[in-house]
Amino acid sequence: MEDFMIFFGGAYAVKGEIDHAGNPPITKYRKWSSKEDVSMVAYVPIPYADLNDVSDNQFVMTPDNEKFDLLSIDTKLMQLAEIFLLYTTLNNSTSRPDIVIWDQSMSGVMASNDEPPEMINMVGNEIMGQKITYQDAVIAFSHPYQDDLKIPSVRSVEVYDSILKELMKGKKVNIADFAKENNLEKQIVFNKIKKYLLTQHSDTDPIAIREGDVLTVEPKWRNSWYNSVTMFQNFCNRLFNKKDSSVLIYKRYSDDGTYDEHWISPTDLKYLISIGLRAVVELAWENQVMLVGIVKDSASTHLSQKYLGTMRFVKAPGYQFDDVLLPWSDRLFLQALPEKNLEFKAPWSTIEFDSVFMTLHVQRNIVNNEPEITGVQGNILNKERLFFRSLAQFYLKRSGKKFNMGHVIFVDRLILPHVESNLNHIDVKSKELGTVKPFFFQNNSAENDVQEVMMYILKILTRNLFPEVIGYPDPLHKADWGAKSMNKKVANMIKSSGKFLKIRPLAKTLRQERGSRR
Predict the structure, then answer these.
(1) Are 194 and 222 within one domain?
(2) Which residues contact 74 (CB under 8 A, 6 or more apart)?
(3) Of 199, 238, 343, 453, whose CB is crowded by the most CB atoms within 10 A?
């Protein structure tokens, strides 16, 4: 009998509605019956021997980072389950909600799962009868597309995404005209698109056909995005609905045309998550659904260090202030404010800022020691004008000088093109990145109707009935209950699957066996 490593991933969602009833009308949240709850679960037992297939050669040591990644497969399965649950919810025309709240940072999930096509193991190989190509990955990562929000942006560092969007519409793109319209040098544009749009990969045609300065899309790639979403949907349906773990095995081809079967890797799961989240965003836009993410705990300084620091550096109006000692984290800093200012009343929130500031920041140049605008690892940025971030507090009670309060939580929401396409933006210029144009609210006097509506809805949903989650939306707490109940059942299955080890003393180390006898 073989030893198994068991991977488990699941997602749980509760449903409800907000009513306006009575005279005068009273706004109330009502959770639907538990029969309406939905879940996605994958339980995948994999023999230890088969895990070696993740490596090309069983006699070649696996790098430490790959060993660590193997241990994170369950986390990626969980994220994939959540994304698929979001996708199926928004894709259901008969019961599509108006508001979806997810216990994750959407901008964070998108950024953490984006991998270069070269790093995705399934690229160049076949999964479920469909061959995944380098070009498929490039096209998938260029999404989501949104004309009113001008997504993807025309930035010199990722200019190929905006050109690719036009090509996928069936349009011709004149590079000389494109460069002139966007104040870019023609040669820089060609250099940026050469690798991704004009180069063959794995003996497959490039995405674009070039005739002089004019680009058109190669016809075979027109349905690439549709095929990628279909592949994501079929993969998740087999894994989570049909419980078919064989979908995690794909064919990896050699140069001579032969192939071996290998287990899917964490980077492959990241690719599927990236496709799914982009499809979710486009579904939400298409159906005008408000998509909100909530993060409970974080030690980030995206607001205090990156956003405020960048605004001061570009001399944005109202952001000129002296150097100060920055707090350990945004959350700890904001939780201290009600202690100093008695005018704070819950619910309250910071202004919203573009999620590009999770990566866009000021950093000293290692050559000349001068501060400059940069991204992560120099030129990696989140997509701007896609998500807004803010921090909010939903419970604060005072009694004289004493007060009780809940945690400050992080709120992430999808920008809505049908009402927010004309918001003010600010130009952040960088030699390396080009011009980044995030949406910009100068202060709390700037009009932001969507944030007010969102805060009102979250206030209704935050009922403050359970002391362990004061100031936290009730539906997310109930979903967490459901997920924990589901996990308890699976935990017993996982525990029972290891019982055979107890009758195999030699499977333990001598020290473990000796310790178990005391």
Answers:
(1) yes
(2) 7, 8, 9
(3) 238
